[in-house]
Amino acid sequence: MSLTRPHNRVTFNKVPEPTWAFWVIKVLATTVGETAADFLSTTLNLGLTNTTIVMGALLAVALVFQFRSRAYTPALYWVAVVLISVFGTLITDNLTDNLGISLVVTTIVFTIALAATFIVWYARERTLSIHQIDSTSREGFYWLAILFTFALGTVAGDLLAEQLNLGYLASVGVFAAAIGLVAVAHFVFKLNAIAAFWIAYVLTRPLGASLGDLLSQAKADGGLGLGTVGTSAIFLVAIVGLVIYLSVGERRTLRAATGAREARIGQTDTVGAHEE
Known about the structure:
Blueprint: H1 20-43, H2 47-68, H3 74-98, H4 103-125, H5 136-164, H6 168-187, H7 193-216, H8 227-275
């Protein structure tokens, strides 16, 4: 029986559930975004502008494949997240380093942009649930929000680091504690799940960036001296391993869901045939 008829077309949520693996990969991807941006623009001497153009083009290609898929595909999704992490970092670096816009201004601008995205998203879709990213419109809003969370997390983290003059290790501790407080607010004090998710998503950006700096920067500057290449390689290998693990599980889940949907459709068609 074909599933290509419009009323029988199988559609699934296009993004992953926020499990432990989701948050681990998110932090890893964020760290890669920080170290890879530095590696491309500084170590390879491509410069901010050229690096931004290259990464923007790669991100556009990744999102085309992501939007064309019918269901959540771990490899497609996380490639897009890694690229949008790098691109979001580059956007903020261009605004502050090339255009000289202060971190206070960019923090305010990206906060407003993220809030506006949520307002328009809810006004059109009547939901902000990440469990129902099952249309092109909702997916578009989702990825726009993701971009702004990376940009906001970058500038807010840099602003806090400048104001408090924290070291890399202390910064990791501060942002990890902040995420822990969000978790407590959600699980203990019943903070709205959607609000908790997006607050944590913003906070993982400076957490990952601080972790990347801690690992990659020279020991004389308070880091561990692994360098941008070594840090990026370690985290990319970890991401690939987790994505492979998730891909195996997702294939099993998708096959089971498709089989169940086909069985329901078959039962409906059989009942209809009997009624005729």
